[in-house]
Write a structure and sequence with these properties.
heterotrimer, A alpha+beta (371), B mainly alpha (363), C alpha/beta (260), B: 363 residues, mainly alpha, MetI-like fold, 15 helices, C: 260 residues, alpha/beta, six-stranded mixed beta sheet, four-stranded antiparallel beta sheet, 9 helices, 37% helix, 24% strand, globular
């Protein structure tokens, strides 16, 4: 009865699962045989041993005496830092560039179009290497540092930016306050339309109160140029600066296209309908256009953010130690390649999953607004 | 449609085009306070940045002077380096006397791409033509049968980029179609397996896949079966492309109304014929803009293979820069390489636009 | 709608004709929703059946069960002596014998009219190309649009598209034709051209099951009228009886809404 639909479906599935399992078994057994032949041990206990690898630059404090797990954490922190900075800056810039592209001013729209086309059609790694090679060509020595924005200096030695630091007397209380504020925000978001006039100030109040009770002191440390050096601020090496600037330029091009598409996706009819109801422009924008635009924008924006995490691996091109570069060093140094590969897969999947679930959560929120 | 109606509104009135055009531009640039501000802002930016760039690029640049010292003296870009090193930049460490072979391969691939771009040539014969061309390309690159043999480790530059792109996409496309169909299968084992496969590949950076391929393959496979670096990179690129293409094609499949499946079933067409004759031609047409985007991403992605030690355009650029006789003009070299990628990807994007518009008018 | 002068050419089929379709105690559920309740219906060869009833009563579901676009869960459906089961070979055999015309045409938009028509002769009936083309042109002439052969479906009017869909179904030389509201998606001025095509087909002696609310058409060609409501066959009668003297309260109500 091979022509019976259900029997056939079961046979096909069993066959495929069998082939896949056999293939996997073959791979695993060859791998173990290979490892044994080379006398390589397997297991994660190497993680607590001192790594003795060098990480040239880190957001966290790292010394080569530190164990492997801390080296991994250091690489991960670098990756998360790059991704977060690039996501924030490219979102803001992308919004501006995307909307400017729709401007009736040909000069403004044209310039933004050039940005978008260059970003979308060049490989990010070439962009990074190119910018990196420009660094010493274009920028002055420290003594003549270039000051494009207040508090930001660029020179051959890299960027110097203002550093924000927070000093907390009782961190425990702050954590509780922030958790409360988050919970309040979540609750308000879930019941949106019910108490929006109260929600925002309430959340803010909880947060501020928490900061106050915890006796937190914010300080912005502005860099001071002494003529040959900098005091204060945060110094970013040319490598890190290149990655941040390059990936921001690149990602901005994509975000701009998404924003432009989002704006265009809301038809003129919606504006007309809003006007015919007597709503002012601001209200139409806030109540009608933006909610519809967000629905279109959020999914592609999220995949763009995931791309930023993936593109942060290009840091390797200018020699900045991101997570993947650190893992690569660890694998070649410790010869725990199987474990290393599993850590790599696990970490990137976890990063993407958390970004996607944040976007999904947000999407559901907007979907509720819709009804 | 929307864009169309918008542009119709700003179209000039007939009869007053001459004077009108100037006037219209002036109005667009300064008509409203916002536009005036934008003009001022962007005008300043352009005035500040473009002249120095032009000076560096062209006016102060060394164009053809074959003497490396001219570059050391000049304040501008060193194009004579690119000119002098073009062979090495484009073909890497391929034996000097045999460079006509990779050059021929590049021309062949580009010509074939140009030919394939015409919708009129989309027949089954085209696939056969490509297969034949790939055999020819491989023979030209690798040698044997009368040509001097050149190992893949000596391949480099533009032909590597082009071959990787074309072969990875070519193999990934049918695989992607199968994956997309499998992901929509009614059989749970197949569906779940495909979802896991596609999503894990899409969740990983290509670089990590390239690394994993080069770390794991020596462990997975017996020594004798181990493919060389070139094939390893090709396999990684193909898997990567297949996962992305599968999702794009699935998007196209979702756009096909149920009635099409029902009509095909009512005509007695079996599953694969239904897919091949009725569903896929429509789904792929719907997916063209997204497909083009994915292919552009793949063209750009091939630039990553340098990280696993292949001699693509970037690596041959770096090798050329190491020549101590020249002042190592890195920015110019990478600008040149970027321009090659830009040309490939930009022309492909324009072609996709053309297809999309054609698709809109066809029905 | 149609002129009442049009004669009914074919007589009532003799009850000795063999059954083309036989449904016995057929039931279908969508999840827990009972769509078709104990359907018993026999259609003889050459018979023309019109099925009507309020929207959502299960008419489409019933005729889609006949060529297995939907699966029934209980009871029997026998088409031309072959019982419908999970057996894929039998399903193939049955689908070859049944042509279907849909409310929304479902022409293949990426193929020309001619290619639409040649699809099943070539790929299902394994005809040669020239043979398939001859068949296709023959049926295009019968539905009176041979001059549109090289256009795409999107370039035709709704009425023309539906006639192409009928021709496409006929190209498989089916023994039975199913019509699911073939004129409901059409502008009023195009309804007649499609109905005329169907009348011509009926006069040739094709076994037909039509879901339609065109009562003039039903009166003209139907041997029997089946009235469905809430998943049941409520009434089954010849047209003159059904229209002049419906035996059921629900049919009366329905006719009242449809005719006036
Ligand atoms: N795929 C489906 N899933 C669930 N319910 C369905 C589906 N298709 C149809 N139905 C339901 O079955 C009933 C009968 O539908 P249908 O046969 O299309 O009615 P008719 O053609 O008489 O208007 C309706 O109530 C409809 O909502
Ligand atoms: Mg219906």
């Amino acid at each position: 009865m091979l022509s019976d639909a259900k029997t056939r479906s079961i046979i096909i599935q069993c066959a495929l699962v069998g082939v896949a399992a056999a293939f996997a078994a073959l791979l695993v057994s060859t791998t173990f045989a290979n490892l044994r032949a080379r006398g390589i041990p397997i297991g994660f206990d190497f993680l607590t041993m001192p790594s003795r690898i060098v990480i040239s630059e880190a957001i966290l404090t790292y010394k080569s005496r530190d164990p492997y797990y801390w080296a991994i954490a250091t690489g991960l922190a670098n990756t998360v830092f790059i991704s977060a900075v690039v996501i924030v800056f490219s979102s803001v810039l992308g919004l501006v560039v995307g909307i400017t592209r729709l401007s009736s001013n040909p000069l403004a729209a044209g310039t933004c179009r050039v940005w978008v086309e260059v970003a979308r059609n060049s490989p990010p790694i070439v962009l990074l290497i190119f910018l990196y090679s420009l660094w010493w060509k274009v920028l002055p020595p420290v003594g003549e540092a270039f000051n494009p924005l207040p508090g930001v200096y660029a020179s051959m030695r890299g960027l110097v930016v203002p550093a924000i630091s927070m000093d907390v007397a009782t961190p425990g209380l702050l954590v509780i306050a922030l958790a409360l504020a988050l919970a309040a925000a979540g609750w308000a978001a879930a019941r949106r339309g019910w108490l929006p006039p109260l929600a925002a100030p309430a959340i803010l109040a909880v947060g501020v109160a928490g900061l106050w009770i915890a006796d937190a002191k914010f300080s912005v440390d502005w860099p001071i140029f002494t003529g040959s050096n900098f005091k204060g601020g945060k110094e970013l090496t040319p490598e890190l600066s290149t990655i941040l600037i390059g990936l921001t330029i690149y990602t901005t091009g994509f975000v701009a296209e998404i924003v432009r598409g989002g704006v265009l996706s809301v038809g003129r009819g919606q504006w007309d309908a809003g006007h015919s109801l007597g709503l002012p422009r601001g209200k139409i924008l806030r109540l009608i256009i933006i909610p519809q635009m967000l629905r279109v924008i959020v999914p592609p924006l999220n995949s763009q953010y995931i791309n930023v995490v993936k593109n942060s691996t290009l840091a390797i091109a200018v020699g900045y130690p991101d997570f993947l570069a650190v893992m690569n060093t660890i694998i070649s140094k410790s010869s725990h390649s199987i474990e290393g590969v599993f850590i790599i897969l696990g970490v990137y999947l976890a990063l993407n999953l958390s970004l996607s679930s944040a976007a999904n959560w947000y999407n559901r929120r907007i979907a509720i607004v819709e009804r | 449609m929307k864009a169309l109606s918008l542009s119709l509104q700003t179209a000039p009135m007939p009869g007053q085009i001459r004077v009108g055009a100037l006037w219209r531009y002036a109005k667009l640039l300064f008509g409203t306070p916002l536009n005036a501000a934008l003009t001022l802002l962007f005008g300043t930016m352009i005035v500040v940045t473009v002249p120095p760039m032009l000076r560096w690029l062209v006016i102060d640049g060394v164009l053809f002077d074959p003497d490396p010292n001219a570059c050391r003296v000049a304040a501008g870009a060193c194009w004579s380096f690119i000119y002098a090193k073009s062979g090495q930049l484009l073909f890497g460490i391929y034996p000097f006397d045999e460079r006509w072979r990779p050059a021929l391969v590049c021309l062949l691939i580009l010509a074939l791409l140009g030919w394939s771009v015409r919708p009129a040539s989309w027949t089954p014969r085209l696939a056969a033509l490509w297969v034949a061309a790939l055999v020819l390309i491989f023979w030209l690159m690798a040698g044997g049968f009368g040509l001097i043999e050149v190992p893949t480790s000596s391949w480099g530059g533009l032909p590597v980029t082009l071959i990787l792109t074309v072969v990875a996409i070519g193999v990934a496309f049918p695989v992607g179609i199968l994956l997309a169909l499998a992901r929509r299968s009614t059989m749970p084992a197949i569906r779940i397996g495909t979802v896991v496969l596609i999503e894990s590949v899409r969740g990983l950076p290509l670089l990590s896949i390239l690394f994993v391929a080069s770390i794991m393959m020596p462990l997975f496979l017996p020594e004798a079966l181990l493919p060389d670096k070139f094939v390893r990179a090709l396999v990684a690129l193909t898997i990567f492309a297949a996962a992305y293409l599968a999702e794009v094609i699935r998007g196209g499949l979702q756009a096909i109304p149920n009635g099409q499946y029902e009509a095909a079933a009512a005509l007695g067409l079996p599953f694969w014929r239904t897919q091949y004759l009725v569903i896929l031609p429509q789904a792929i047409r719907v997916a063209i803009p997204a497909l083009a985007n994915t292919i552009i991403v793949m063209i750009k992605n091939t630039s990553l293979v340098l990280v696993v030690g292949l001699f693509d355009l970037i690596s041959s650029g770096k090798a050329a820069l190491a020549d101590p006789d020249w002042p190592s003009p890195a920015a110019e070299t990478f600008l040149f390489i970027g321009a090659i990628f830009f040309a490939l990807s930009f022309s492909f994007a324009r072609f996709a636009d053309f297809l999309e518009r054609r698709g809109l008018t066809a029905h | 709608m149609l002129s009442s002068a049009a004669k009914r050419v074919a007589p009532m089929p003799a009850s000795s004709e063999p059954a083309a379709i036989e449904m016995v105690g057929m039931n279908k559920w969508y999840g827990s929703f009972h769509v078709l309740k104990d359907i018993n219906l026999t259609v003889r060869r050459g018979e023309r059946l019109v099925i009507c009833g309020p929207s959502g009563s299960g008419k489409s579901t019933m005729i889609r069960c006949i060529n297995r676009l939907e699966e029934h869960q209980h009871g029997q459906i026998v088409v031309d002596g072959v019982e419908l089961t999970n057996d894929l070979k039998k399903i193939d055999v049955i689908r070859r014998d049944i042509g279907m015309v849909f409310q929304h045409f479902n022409l293949f938009p990426h193929l020309t009219i001619l290619e639409n028509l040649m699809l099943s002769p070539i790929w299902v009936r394994s005809m040669r190309r020239w043979q398939a083309e001859q068949t296709a042109m023959h049926y295009l002439e019968r539905v009176k649009i041979p001059d549109q052969a090289h256009k795409y479906p999107g370039q035709l009017s709704g009425g023309q598209q539906q006639r192409v869909a009928i021709a496409r179904a006929l190209c498989m030389s089916p023994k039975i034709m199913l019509f699911d509201e073939p004129t409901s998606a059409l502008d009023p001025e195009m309804v007649k051209e499609v109905l005329d095509t169907m009348v011509a087909l009926a006069e040739d002696g094709m076994t037909m099951l039509c879901v339609t609310h065109e009562m003039g058409f039903a009166r003209q060609i139907a041997d029997r009228i089946v009235f469905m409501d809430q998943g049941e066959i409520v009434e089954m009668n010849n047209p003159s009886e059904f229209f002049s003297n419906p035996s059921h309260e629900r049919s009366k109500l329905f006719l009242g809404q449809i005719l006036y």
